[in-house]
Amino acid sequence: MTKNQSLLDILRTSLKLGLTSFGGPVAHLGYFKTEYIDKRKWLDDKTYADIIALCQFLPGPASSQVGIAIGMLRGGFLGGVVSWFGFTLPSVFVLVLFALFYQSFTLGDANWIASLKIVAVAVVAHAVLGLGKKLAPDKPRIAIALVAALIMLLFPSAFVQIAIILMGAGIGYFLYKNKAQPKLSSFAVSISKKQGILALSILVAMLIGLPILASVFPYMYIQIADTFFRVGSLVFGGGHVVLPMLEQEIVPTGFVTSDEFLAGYGMAQAVPGPLFTFSSYVGTMMNGIIGAVIATVAIFLPSFLLIVGTLPFLSELRKRSSFQGVLTGVNASVVGLLVAAFYDPVFTSSILNGADFGLAVILFALLHFWKVPAWLIVIMGVIGGEIVHLIG
């Protein structure tokens, strides 16, 4: 396969995921596993798990970073760009249109939105079960996952999530540092360590320089770039955390009203792809199409710089038994975080009655046992939701 063919294949696959990956970051990992690992065999389960662990350590949208990393492993830096573009473009397009015409939209209580949430329950349950079998196959790792889930459910916050991951890393180091996997497959990445260090240096320079630039030259475009780059660099916990954080940055300044923000907030929950594309809606509200482009690029740029900065070191580090131990513990704690996220917000915001639960169980069974493709589950879920709504 030529490089151009490879990039086209990455674009086609990521665009498919961008059109069908409903349900938020946890569900995205399930869709990715089905498409990239189970179906296309672009990488093995262990490498996929290690990439997830790496991205959980980093600020920004973890599922988008996983997609970018897989694209880079498949097609170099351009592969990462193409993977992000395909996965992100559909939701950007919808949210920009919604920002332009939001006053004439009355989709907040639409039944198909509720149906998509039920689909997300089935997809996330499938993802948690599949990843749990791979990442927590023994009693010590199951214990790590259970404790992580319990702590996250009792004290839900981005800072607690970071603490849980660090806890898992420490426990994994002590329990598994001398249990290296001898046949661990390596992967090649066409990004050098020097380029990685340069990317991290650019990230730090922009974090320091953009606020100074925005204060010296108070132009709207610079302010948009500063705000969204800073949020994309510093937010831990993924899309569900970035929305309230953006509200604190945008609404008090008067860039958008509270009603405008909440309208976009609701729509962002209903579209496929990464929740960080909510920035496209806000950018459009602030300064039209150009504002949307600047906001979208600015909030995702830190993810590229972080992945380029860390991916060249991952293949070498994961060969060391001590680092394997760390990743083993982190992966187990990630399972616990996924369990917690499955309950809240996925389950609690989606399952409102027995009919919803019954539809979710049927969709899960079709996905898990009958191996129905995820994109078809989305269509069946919407149709099933309409039928349940008519019967009810």
From TrEMBL:
It comes from the Bacteria. It is a multi-pass membrane protein. The keyword Protein transport does not apply. InterPro entries: Chr_Tranpt_l_chain, Chromate_transpt. The chain crosses the membrane at residues 77-100, 112-131, 143-176, 196-221, 228-246, 289-314, 326-343, 349-367, 374-391. It is found in: Cell membrane. Keywords: Cell membrane, Membrane, Transmembrane, Transmembrane helix. Belongs to the chromate ion transporter (CHR) (TC 2.A.51) family. This is Chromate efflux transporter. It comes from Virgibacillus dokdonensis. The gene is chrA.
